[in-house]
Amino acid sequence: MISLATVIKVALEILQWLIVARVLLSFIPHNPRHPVLIFIYDMTEPILGFFRRLLPATSLPLDFSPLVAILVIQLLEHFIS
After folding, report:
1. What is the torsional sign of CA 31, 32, 33, 35?
2. Coiled coil: which residue ranges (predicted)?
3. Which of 27, 51, 58, 72 fits as disulfide partner to 65, beta carbons 3.0 to 4.6 Å?
4. How far, in Å, CA of 14 to CA of 4, rounded?
5. Which helix H or strand E contains 71, and what residues bound it?
6. For residue range 23-63, what is the model confidence (pLDDT) as tens digits?
7. What is the C-alpha R_g of the chain?
8. Residue 22 domain-assigned (yes or no)
């Protein structure tokens, strides 16, 4: 039987890969109305938006929220296992 910790860990791993996909997609031109892209944005925006609000604004045109989100997800995975 699959434990709750395993299910949470797999969900966090999937979320982490969706964030990586979103970062990679930001470097290439794409159709923002594509259903797969809409799914990726819908799944990652709540967590990235949360970290964007927490992080101070910088003069650099870089979004550090994916980096912070992945670090927090990895920390959560470490505590779960």
Report:
1. positive
2. none
3. 51
4. 15
5. helix 65-80
6. 999 999 989 899 999 999 999 999 999 999 999 888 888 89
7. 14
8. yes
